[in-house]
Amino acid sequence: MDAFADKLGRIGAWCGQNKYLNAIKNGFQNFMPATISGAIGVLWTNVLVNESTGLGALWSPIMALKVLNPIFAAMQYATISCITIGVTMLVASEIAEANGETGAYPAVLGFILWMMVTPTSFAAKDLGASYIDKGGISHSFNLGQFIKVTGDAAKNGITADSFSYSGILSSHTGATGLFTGLLVALIGMEIYNMFRKNDSLKIKMPEQVPPGVARAFEVLIPTCLTAIVVGAVGLVCQIATGAELNAFIFNVVQKPLQSLIGDNIFAVAIMYVIISLFWCVGIHGNNMLAAVKEPIFRPLLYANTAAYTAGNKVPYVMNLTMLQMFAEFGGSGVTIGLVIAIFIFSKREDNRTIAGISIVPGLFNINETMTFGIPLVLNPILDIPFILAPVATIVIGYILVSSGFCPKIVLEVPWTMPPVILGFLATGGSPMGAISQLIVLAASTLIYIPFLIAYEKFQEKDAAAE
After folding, report:
1. What are the structural domain ranges in the chain?
2. 382-397, pLDDT tens digit by residue?
3. Residue 203 and residue 224: Cα distance in Å, rounded?
4. pTM exceeds 0.70, yes or no
């Protein structure tokens, strides 16, 4: 056991010191207030002040607040639909800070580099529209079908292909472009750091020049060279593959990862075994895997949010909030089940005292008092249900959602939201979300009960031997 704990400890230390994993983790954590604000916007426009799908259908007076809907719709778009911009800038800033850079400029440069590999010009003829007829059949059209160029325009070579528009598509600023933003931020800022540390590339200004101006000239050449390198990578990708870098990374990296892990219950179950194993030796397992988990499961969440907001079919069963709802409620190892088991079956005052201290933090998904108080760390008897419980609850949750018993999870909710309330909000205000969390809460309690009884027998035997 000691040798195993030592190996996990070394892995944990490496993860904790890895600047790339830390940059991704910190970038997502720092952007979280924005995404939760966006979720509030979705709740307002879709669950509360909505006469078709929300409270407005049941209680019409609330529709007097509809005048405020554009505010909350804009809030949702500026946060969830623009997550790639915010996270790219934050991750670029984190990498720069790890490399000894200070100030806000690295975040701006991260945005510039991302923009250089993001398409900004599009053919107007590809604009589409669709409707669903009474028979449930979808009919799709694109503008090119209706463009017919005549007269002088046609004589001078104007065709349907000539009409274009400029801008940034929400598919690039939202979840679909997230992996591109992460890779550009990580690799681009390392290229910039390499050029910045080369003294021969720094333009030295006289001492009387203000520090801000001198600093701008100092990073001028490194900035220009970094932009050229990143732009060249984007151009080579387009020439070699026929696709923009955004599309190439999505098809080659992001989409396969999401298919392999993101909607694969077996891969997710293994992930929670690994998270629990870290915890069993005193290492924060969720923090260790956050940099891997979030880039895969957060885009799935925002894809669901976008579909829910647009009134379309919600695509994914699993996403980041779904994992929190079914495998992390009450804290890692879903130890709130152990707290409940102790209150019902424990005969030892010390365990009941620890459970009493842990119940309030546990309701807000904080369980360090339980993890280190019982303790669960290096506890062979209770470590078994600690590993087993989240695996069982995520499998049950997957079955509940995929069967339609529980609606698909569509909103990000603060991770400290108490269970049952979390399920209600995450599913867009569905009572079945709350009921589903009650089911997995009961399941986690049942899993812990026999091991708790065995552990207390061991405690009694150990106390008698003393």
Report:
1. 29-125+164-258, 263-465
2. 999 999 999 999 999 9
3. 13
4. yes
